[in-house]
Amino acid sequence: MRSDICVEKPLEAVSVSPAVDAVFSYFGKEIFHHEPAGTSMETLWLPQGKLLDVMRFLRRSEHGFDMLFDLHAVDERLRRHRPTGLGQVGFSVFYQLVSLRTGRDLMIKVGVDEAAPKLPSITAIWPAANWYEREVYDMFGIVFEGHPCLKRLLMPPGWQGHPLRKDYAARATEHGPYILTPRKQDEQQAQLRFVPEEWGLARGNGQRDYMFLNFGPNHPSAHGAFRLVLQLDGEEVLDCVPDIGYHHRGAEKMAERQSWHSYIPYTDRIDYTGGVVNNLPYLLALEALGDIPVPQRAQTIRVMLTELFRITSHLLFFGTYVQDLGAMTPVFFTFTDRQKAYGIIEAITGFRMHPAWFRIGGVAADLPKGWDALVEDFLAWMPKRLDEYQKTMMENATLRERAQHVAAYTSEQALEWGVTGPNLRATGFDFDARRDRPYSGYENFSFEVPLGKNGDVFDRGMMRLEEMRQSLRIIAQCLKHMPSGAIRADHPLSTPPARERMKTDIETLIRHFQQISWGARMPVGESMQMIEATKGLNSYYIISDGGTMSYRTRIRTPSFAHLQQIPEVMRGGFVPDMVAHIASIDFVMADVDR
Amino acid sequence: MSVFSLPAVQAILPQLMSIAWGIGKALIVLFGVVICGAYMSLVERRVLGLWQDRYGPNRVGPFGLFQLVADMLKIFFKEDWIPPFADKFLFVLAPLVAMGTMILAFMVIPVTPDLGVADLNIGVLFFMAMAGLAVYAVLLGGYASGNKYALLGVARSAAQSLSYEVFLGLSMMGVVARAGSFDLRTIVLSQQGLWNIIPQFFGFIAFLIAGIAVVHRHPFDQPEAEQELADGYHIEYGGMKWGMFFVGEYVGIILISAMIVTLFFGGWLGPFSVVPPFVWFALKTGAFMLFFILIRASVPRPRYDQVMILSWQYLLPLTLVNLIITGAVLLWVGGAA
């Protein structure tokens, strides 16, 4: 394990990190409100007018940050426990900055007035802010001044209202009946027509016209309902505009009307190939908030299932990756392998793709009898299959020609756009949250973090193959050292009182009834947890107002950032290169749109 | 009194008989090829299934043999839809050209010493002509569809076919030079004792690759490249018109396999005289058809420009060198004799 990357844990209660210290000494301490790191990041509230200056400073200073990790907003109007830095305004926008190199992070928060919600755009400082600001505009109606193209991102262009505002009804029954007339349909169709001028794209270069091609939302290689509008000169991609939102389900809004417990199944469906991996950051954030200790056995079971799901997700990736490079057969083999992994998952959880099997404080049930034999079989089966894939596909000259040095980008470009996970490691950037910001007991496992060199389509494919090998290593360690003991925390917030006590004591009965019917009430506070999900860094930022439901749940998904980066990488490529790049990103639209 | 007893009819009866037999042979070859082409859709799916650890269509009839019937019924009953933005005449013409040229080209293939539709003394050139015309199917179909993906497919197809037909022709010239004839039957007979695969190995390699490219089978299926162009030039086609493209492609595979066998593997010739010539021909052709499917199952698709580089930078010089050496050897041997 590398020693130079570690999380800087505050020693005393009110510690100030070097970055904040630098900000204080540069701008003066008075205008800020500082909250030390706790279950969430260290937070700095600042006045609107200083936002651009501070952002520019934090980008460039030696204590600066290399990635705009997340950016979103909170509707603070119904919050009972309002943060002190907020003042009297109705909204707040938060910017999560991380430094993956040094393992530091900082959250910048700015209050936004309800009457005229506007903020300066930081896209000139952090290009990755582009889509995030558009989403905030879409969801909260906050206008970012100076944004190059502030349009709705997830909702259709003609949508009325801003869904994540607290006064926007969540339930369909609270809205009027939905009627689609032919005229309305035509209007909506017309809104979807791509007008190049709106995106600053030329229709031709004077000598010849460019062709604008809708790649998706229905295209075999678009990997879901994803639309990419290509500006083509022959087969050369001059520019492209990704269009997302076709898979938007309002998962963050749903979190605000589900109990802490009953939201777990929704998380499974964020990255729908990741299964229980999605439960993990949500639950870890909650457990930190409620100070719920997770037993060793539960942690190890979680790690084992997470790695199993990482393998099934990577197998799906690998099959479709080589298929998009034109090899039709491997996908059938990887599906056979996935089937074996799902056999284990099904035996343990009783479900296949979306088990929703982790619980607050542990897991739903203990491992079934004979689980170890299943895992042993799988561990014996997989390595030779992976070797075969490597030999037949990754060492194939045609595939190498197609993939090497295609759609390559550097670590700097990746960080600039918020690219994480295997795609970041393919550029040679050595960061894996499992090792560098360990959670759920990953610090107890020995595994390597495979790294690429060129950051091209080929390296991104190899990354997944190597990661599967490492995941097998971790699963083998789980198998060998599975601790005994409880599988669920004995904590009032995670587990209802024991049935025997409930029968004798009215207080316990009431408590049991409340916990089953309403669910647990999490303490007031904020919590943020990032994990190394199957596709990159996935994080949940949870705000509890002391209720049985979340006040705000922000889900930062890796695929969102990866899609935003496509135009940067694809300019000048050919259509087949673009297909190869899209295949190598490994995204699912549910993970992008949430 | 029967017409056949008339002296005039008596005089031309042998000719009539031979015309009838000629038509009969043509019909046998025609139906044989079309049925084989159609059945190849089943064979391909079953064989791919075998290689990919799955079953393929095995439900309709024994071993799924009647799957074809089910497919045909479905395809015939599908709405014969023409997109409103399409050029109707060309849109209908294109699949006819696709299937027609491939079947016509089969006319010159000598199946056995007795079976074969026509022994043209320009057989090789006729094959080239038909292969050249087949490009129009893609061009017209893609152009008439009025679809951007189809247009990209057409552009690819035009470039690919033009390049590959250059050395598709050149790769056969070595064989022609050895046989001293463009007639395919003469070419087969010239291989008695030694199949052309030995002296014309490089010609074979070039012809094989060019052949795959001409019928745009994977990995040279650039015009339709499903992952990129979502079926390219026939993206707007459905029902029987699509079916004709489909069967045309399979007939193309049979045609190229039969040409490989005729040019390089001694046609119907075989070592054991007990085995009838037709069986030799069918076995060899079948083996190449399976080979085409195996290629599809096993290799990734190169990028379009890499396909062009392969053609102009490697295959064209290869065929030219092959032709020069063949000519030199022939002259040297001929000069010595």
Descriptive labels:
heterodimer; A: alpha+beta; Beta Polymerase, domain 2; Cytochrome-c3 Hydrogenase, chain B; 2 domains; 5-stranded mixed sheet; 3-stranded antiparallel sheet; 21 helices; disordered N terminus; B: 337 residues; mainly alpha; 69% helix
How would you sum up this structure in a few lines?
Chain A has 594 residues and is α+β, with helices and mostly antiparallel strands. Chain A is 39% helix and 14% strand.
Number of domains of chain A: 2
Please, what is the oligomeric state? heterodimer
- Identify the overall geometry of chain B: globular
User: What coarse outline of chain A follows from CA principal-axis ratios?
Assistant: globular
Provide the β-strand percentage band of chain A: 5-15%
CATH superfamily of the largest domain in chain A: Cytochrome-c3 Hydrogenase, chain B
Trace the largest sheet of chain A across and list its strands.
1-2-5-4-3
How many domains in all of chain B? 1
Cα-atom Rg of chain A, whole angstroms?
A: 24 Å
- Unreliable stretches of chain B (pLDDT < 50, length at least 5) are none
Share of helix of chain A, binned: 25-40%
Please summarize the sheet with the most strands of chain B: none
User: What is the count of DSSP helices of chain A, taking H or I runs of 4+ residues?
Assistant: 21
Give an overview in words:
- The complex is a heterodimer of chains A (594) and B (337).
- By secondary structure, chain A is α+β, with helices and mostly antiparallel strands.
- Chain A has two domains: 18-145, NADH:ubiquinone oxidoreductase Nqo5 subunit (Beta Polymerase, domain 2), CATH 3.30.460.80; 251-593, Cytochrome-c3 Hydrogenase, chain B, CATH 1.10.645.
- Chain A has helices spanning 18-27, 51-60, 129-140, 182-192, 251-255, 264-268, 279-290, 296-324, 330-349, 371-394, 397-403, 411-416, 422-425, 433-436, 457-480, 499-504, 506-517, 558-564, 566-570, 575-585, 589-593; strands at 33-35, 43-46, 67-75, 91-99, 104-112, 118-120, 143-145, 211-215, 227-233, 236-243, 358-359, 362-363, 525-532, 537-544, 552-556.
- In chain A, strand 11 and strand 12 form a beta hairpin.
- The longest helix of chain A is centred in the middle third of the chain and has 29 residues, at 296-324.
- Chain A is globular.
- The relative contact order of chain A is 0.13.
- Residues 1-13 of chain A have low confidence and may be disordered.
- Chain B is mainly α and 337 residues long.
- Chain B has one domain.
- Chain B has helices spanning 7-51, 67-77, 88-105, 123-145, 148-179, 184-189, 201-214, 226-229, 239-264, 277-298, 304-336.
- Chain B is globular and about 55 Å long.
- In chain B, 45% of the residues are buried.
- The mean pLDDT of chain B is 83.
